[in-house]
Amino acid sequence: MIFNKDKLKLRLFQQTILSSATNKNVLCVIPTGLGKTHIAIALASLRLAETQKVLMLAPTRPLVNQHKEVFSEYFSPDEELNIISGETPANERPEIWSSSRIIFSTPQTIKNELISSKINLADVSLVIFDEAHHASGDYDYNFIAKTYVSQAKNPRILALTASPGTDQIKINEICNNLFIDKIESRDRDHAEVKEYVKEIESEYVFVSLPDEINAIRNHLELAMKLRLAALCDLNLIISKDLSKINKKQLLAVQRELQHKISNGEYDAGRGISIIASLLKIYHAHQLIESESLRAIYMYFEKLWVEARDTKVKATKDVVSDFHIRIAKKLTEEALQKGLEHPKIDALNKICQKQLEKNTKSKIIVFSEFRSNVKQILSNLLSAKISAEKFIGQSSINDKGMSQETQSEIIQRFSNTEFNVLVATSVAEEGIDIPAVDLVVFYSPVPSAIRTIQRRGRTGRQETGKMITLITKDTKDEAYYWIAKHKEKQMSNALKAASSETITLNSYLPEKQKIEREVTIFADNRERGHVTEKLFELGVNLKIGTLKVGDFILSEDVGVERKEVSDFLASLTDGRLFSQAKKLSENFNKPLMILEGDIEQLFSLRQINKNAIYGALASLTLDWKIPFLISSGSAETAEILNAIARREQLEQKKAVSIRGESKPKSFQEMQEFFIEGLPAVGPNLAKRLLEHFKTPKAIANASEEDLTKVEGLGDKKAKIIKRLLDSSYSKN
């Protein structure tokens, strides 16, 4: 691979960070726009010895595409730089991996390929984790890092972020999860970077709610206070003061009550219902204080529609509340008068002022709620300001934007085909727009990480500006101060963490070749903690579409895994017994694993106990399906592994590739046989048999002859011929 080193000009601070990264696993924390990617490019050039590879990971496909484009400016030939994503055909990924020197991907894709043993990280000399602040909790970065250090012959990790976390605990968690040895941090005031940082002017525009909107807010608050009083009477909270209650606290109380119900304290149901109603009103209150009248009107309409079709008490409680009905009526009247939230008008004026200074200005407006994007966009367009929306891929009520559409919108924005991008949090990271003149926070966010990410969209090449809209005497003001405090906290935590010697507390996996003695076939819907744990236990996992069951452990044993909530849902909608029938018909030893808190079987849903006992009895006695109890995904994996080892190693049983209804007629047997070919489904199998008449003729056909069948292209034909013509080798 050729590296164009003359093109890459590193600044002194980049060289200093690179020097550390050549010898240690480094967490690089520098402001957005100062060249984190170029440090990664320089390190990649040093680590690409002989046949070794570099893997660069990013949370989103647009960011993956962006990294590939930037790396392609410095490395050639381009054929050795490739993207592997969920859109890459599964059968092509191993070949792409094998032929590439630098691979760009999302963590989900790489994790799935690792678990399926389709790729190995032994020859990867560098893994770059972009937006490394995601490496907490159960995020896929953690699994990949752990697998990497156990598989790689010569591992090196570089983690990149502009904002790792607000406290030292969070920063240490990231360092442990990614096996970091040293933190290299430079803030905007650091002597090494100050001359390269463009000034970002910050401005805060305060607006006051008019009397009409305050009246709506007052009725919402009266409805909330009634429910707070009821919760106080139940001794679930200690204060009726709205200013001392937030969503996080209410959700914590709700979880506590759900736990009580699971322990048989059914009186807790009253509190859960009140909190559910309160949370719905709380959301409406957020919309009226910070967003728009149109957004709250649409929310009211949604609640009224739901109330007609649902049995959920909380929804019916909200729409029947006197104060909520008054609030809805006042909202409708205000809209009829042409009133709107004052932020809407303030935003229009801000954008117009910026465009008067420079007609080619690029402006990003961040909205907290997708439901408000449409209203913001509509008002900007009405004011003759060219604008487009930029939202995520999906939500319950909105199909959202595909990644292709997102990329197209960003390209048009970069080309100044329109001036204003109205975006949700999806635009906080992972987009590269070099010259954004103004970033507008339609509402402040109580998060230092998100504030830094948003602000980083401007001030990259020229002086930038950030304006935050704040509604007086609302949570907007509180969120503003929270974000400022957390940002200062982050700076102090980084300085403290950077000055300390990092001692890895994580379990460092030993480098050893794991003999994967047993094979388990898992349905592709089972990707998650169970398959991750099975991989760690040394299981050879084959993930695909299973027509029956979730796991196949041998030719005799098929397993249906049910979390408690799914068990109850499948009992209610009738899936349980149809699944049991298929499982029983296709496996000599069918098995069901019931996973989770078993006490919740009788508390999560209002299902008669006798019905649940009857279902369990029917599974065992009628369908001859025993069921095992598992406390969680880790224990489920251990159970599956133990049974698979017993079946395959002790009982010497083979594991079948397909779990599906066995054919009954001779014709079905022929179709079943041909469906076993790669990428051949039921319809294509029938077309092949209709065209060639016999399975033998299909096996003897040339690639050219195979492509004459509708739906069978060159790639499929090549794979089929390779399978049929290759000698069998037992590994």
What is the count of distinct domains? 5
Helical percentage = 40-55%
> How would you characterize the largest beta sheet?
7 strands, parallel
User: Whole-number radius of gyration?
Assistant: 29 Å
CATH topology of the largest domain: Rossmann fold
Low-confidence stretches: none
Q: Mean of residue pLDDT?
A: 86
Amino-to-carboxy terminus distance: 32 Å
| CATH level-two architecture of the largest domain | 3-Layer(aba) Sandwich
Structure report:
This protein has 731 residues and is an alpha/beta fold. The protein folds into five domains: 2-196, P-loop containing nucleotide triphosphate hydrolases (Rossmann fold); 200-207 and 342-473, Rossmann fold; 211-336, phosphoenolpyruvate carboxylase, domain 3 (Up-down Bundle); 519-650, 3-Layer(aba) Sandwich (Rossmann fold), CATH 3.40.50.10130; 666-725, Orthogonal Bundle (DNA polymerase, domain 1). Helix content is 48%, strand content 13%. The protein has 28 helices and 21 strands. The protein has a seven-stranded parallel beta sheet with strand order 5-6-3-7-8-2-9, sandwiched between helices. Helix 8 packs antiparallel against helix 10. The longest helix has 25 residues, at 475-499. The model has no long low-confidence stretch (mean pLDDT 86).
Summarize the topology.
Layout: E1 2-3, H1 12-23, E2 26-29, H2 36-47, E3 53-57, H3 61-72, E4 75-76, E5 81-84, H4 93-99, E6 102-105, H5 107-115, E7 124-129, H6 140-151, E8 157-161, H7 168-177, E9 182-185, E10 200-207, H8 211-233, H9 247-262, H10 268-290, H11 293-309, H12 313-320, H13 322-336, H14 342-357, E11 363-366, H15 370-382, E12 387-390, H16 403-414, E13 420-423, E14 438-441, H17 448-455, E15 464-471, H18 475-499, E16 519-523, H19 529-536, E17 540-544, E18 551-552, E19 557-563, H20 564-573, H21 575-586, E20 589-595, H22 609-621, E21 627-630, H23 633-650, H24 666-675, H25 682-692, H26 695-700, H27 703-706, H28 714-725
Parallel strand pairs: 2-8, 2-9, 3-6, 3-7, 5-6, 7-8, 10-15, 11-13, 11-14, 12-13, 14-15, 16-17, 19-20, 20-21
Antiparallel strand pairs: 1-4, 16-18, 18-19
